[in-house]
Specification:
Layout (H helix, E strand, L loop, with lengths): L11 H21 L8 E5 L5 H10 L3 E6 L2 H10 L5 E5 L10 E7 L8 H11 E11 L6 H14 L7 H10 L3 E6 L14 H11 L1 E6 L4
Parallel strand pairs: 1-2, 1-4, 2-3, 4-5
Antiparallel strand pairs: 5-7, 6-7
Helix pairs in contact: 4-6
Length: about 220
C-alpha cells in the first residue's frame, strides 16, 4: 500500500466528507456478504477514519475490530471517534505484527493502491483464522471504463501501481491459498451527487463494475 495515501486524506473535514459519501457503499457491503458478523473479530485493511468498523460495532455487534491505514491523521481521528467501542487502530502499510485470528477481514477500494498484491494476500491469509473470509470491494480495475480513464489521468500524480485486471487480482489471492469468488455489490439507491459529472456513468459503475471479491481461507 503506497504511503501516498496521505494525499487522499488531507484534513479532518475531507475525511469526514469521504466517510459520509461511503455510507451507502458500506450498507451495500453488509447486504452482499454471506457471513454472520455477530461476536466476530474483524479486520479492516485501509480503514481510514474507522467509520466502517464503528458501523459494524453499532449495527453488527462484532466482538472486536482492528483497523490499519498508512495515513497518521486518519488513524488519529479513528482512535478519537471510536469512543468506548472495542476498536483498535494502528498506522501501518500492512497487517501489524501480532494481529491475528480474525474471523472476517474487509477492504474498500484498497487493492488498486497496493504495489505488491502477493504480499498483501499473504499477510491477510496469515492474519485470518482457519475458515476466515476476506471481503474486498474493488471498482478501480481494468474492466471498469470510467475507472480505467481515471487511473490514466491520475496514476503518475498519485504514484499508483499499474491498473490491475480482475483475473490478476484473483490469481494473486488464489496463489496465497485462498478460495476466490466474486459478486456484484448489492447496491440500492445511489446518491445523485458527489461521484461523477455523468450520473448515468456512475450508475453503470456502481451496478456493473464495483464488485465484491470474496477470498475464503480453508478451514484446514
Amino acid at each position: 500500500m503506497t504511503t501516498e495515501s496521505d494525499l487522499y486524506w488531507q484534513t479532518g473535514a475531507e475525511d469526514a466528507a469521504m466517510q459520509g459519501e461511503h455510507a451507502f457503499v458500506w450498507r451495500a457491503m453488509l447486504d452482499t456478504i454471506d457471513a454472520d458478523l455477530s461476536a466476530r473479530r474483524v479486520l479492516d485493511a485501509g480503514c481510514n477514519q474507522g467509520g466502517f468498523l464503528r458501523l459494524l460495532c453499532d449495527a453488527g455487534a462484532i466482538a472486536a475490530g482492528y483497523g490499519y491505514d498508512p495515513a497518521p491523521g486518519a488513524i488519529a481521528d479513528a482512535r478519537r471517534l471510536a469512543g468506548e467501542r472495542p476498536l483498535v487502530f494502528d498506522v501501518a502499510e500492512t497487517v501489524p505484527a501480532g494481529w491475528e485470528r480474525f474471523d472476517v477481514a474487509f477492504s474498500h477500494e484498497v487493492l488498486y493502491l497496493i504495489d505488491d498484491l502477493a504480499a498483501h494476500a499473504a499477510a491477510i491469509h496469515e492474519a485470518l483464522a482457519p475458515g476466515g473470509v476476506y471481503y474486498a470491494v474493488m471498482g478501480v480495475h481494468a474492466a471498469a471504463p470510467t475507472m480505467a480513464d481515471w487511473h490514466r489521468r491520475n496514476a503518475e500524480r498519485l504514484h499508483l501501481p499499474a491498473l490491475y485486471a480482475l483475473d490478476d487480482v484473483i490469481g494473486s489471492f488464489a496463489a496465497a491459498g485462498f478460495e476466490p469468488a466474486v459478486a456484484r455489490l448489492q447496491v440500492g439507491f445511489i446518491p445523485a451527487s458527489g461521484h461523477t459529472t455523468s450520473f448515468p456513468a456512475s450508475l453503470e459503475y456502481f451496478y456493473d463494475h464495483k464488485l465484491m471479491l470474496r477470498f475464503a481461507k480453508p478451514a484446514s
